[in-house]
Amino acid sequence: MFNLITGAYSNDPVKINIVSNNNAFFERIGYFKGNKDRVFTVLYQDGATPLTIQAYAKNLPHTLESMTTAYFYKEGSTVPNDGVTLANGSISAINIIFETPGLSSWQYAYMIFRTGQEKFVDCIKTSSSDLCKQ
What we know:
Blueprint: E1 15-18, E2 24-34, E3 37-44, H1 50-58, E4 68-74, H2 82-85, H3 90-99, E5 108-112, E6 118-122
Parallel strand pairs: 3-4
Antiparallel strand pairs: 1-2, 2-3, 4-5, 5-6
């Protein structure tokens, strides 16, 4: 697995601890950055709540006047990684997430639009959102 902190490959996943009402652990799986836009795929463990997931999402790297999108998958899901990381653009990375057969559906999605507006969606409760897989 590629370690986003050290920039090296390792067998140990990168875990980032977010302290909130509950300690929740997240693992970044895929990460694309290009032209200031960013796309993340993230696994979350059972202890994570919608509030801790949203707090984690709000703390992801972001550049003003750019787009940041994060897709959150429950631990044990089949999540895109290299396809997202090696994509040739943010739209391509998002298309990989939406269109690759055999991948799990994500439960939560978060986006910061180029205007600065933010959107956090529970895709199980609001599956009709553009950020969710239909």
